[in-house]
Amino acid sequence: MPGCQEGKRGNVTAIDPGADIQLQPGEDEKHADYVTARIPLAGHASPEWLRCYGKLADEENPPLSARAEDEPDRSWIIVRVPATIPQERLLQVLDAACDLIPRADAAEQAPPPAARAEAIVREWWAARRG
């Protein structure tokens, strides 16, 4: 699948090419017209990575109906789409969900915003003091 990384390399989160995806049709009347695709990740993602992934999915325009969850066996990317979605759009959504993986990796490794602001203030203060 274009946009998805395969295998686990270092601190890179990736799909597990040796595992099968899981497909679930809508299970109740409200969601009967939806399909949920569960894309297996290689191992377990950290809670911070899961949070970053969810935040990135919510910030997409339009928001991406994807989330990451950790379960006893592994972590998963979970994408819910309307069953009637056109093929090209469905492929775009799946690619977009996978494209968030390296972005979540980067977000997880980035220093917290407060650390960046503190560094700027310290640099400013040092310059003021001469």
CATH topology: Yope Regulator, Chain: A
Any idea of the CATH class?
Alpha Beta
Shape descriptor reads elongated
Q: Approximately how much beta-strand content do the residues carry?
A: 15-25%
The CATH architecture assignment turns out to be 2-Layer Sandwich
Distance between the termini: 55 Å
Give me the side-by-side strand order of the main sheet: 1-2-4-3
Mean pLDDT: 86
Helix share, percent? 40-55%
Poorly predicted sequence stretches spanning 5 or more consecutive residues: 1-10
Largest sheet: 4 strands, antiparallel
What is the domain total for the residues?
A: 1
Provide the succession of SSEs.
EEHEEHH
The rounded Rg comes to 18 Å
Annotation field: number of helices: 3
Structural class: alpha+beta
Topology:
Elements: E1 22-25, E2 34-40, H1 47-59, E3 66-70, E4 75-82, H2 87-109, H3 113-129
Antiparallel strand pairs: 1-2, 2-4, 3-4
Q: What would you note in describing this structure?
A:
This protein has 130 residues and is of the alpha+beta class. The chain has a single domain, classed as 2-Layer Sandwich (Yope Regulator, Chain: A), CATH 3.30.1460. It contains 3 helices and 4 strands. It has helices at 47-59, 87-109, 113-129; strands at residues 22-25, 34-40, 66-70, 75-82. It has a 4-stranded antiparallel sheet with strand order 1-2-4-3. The protein is elongated and about 65 Å long.
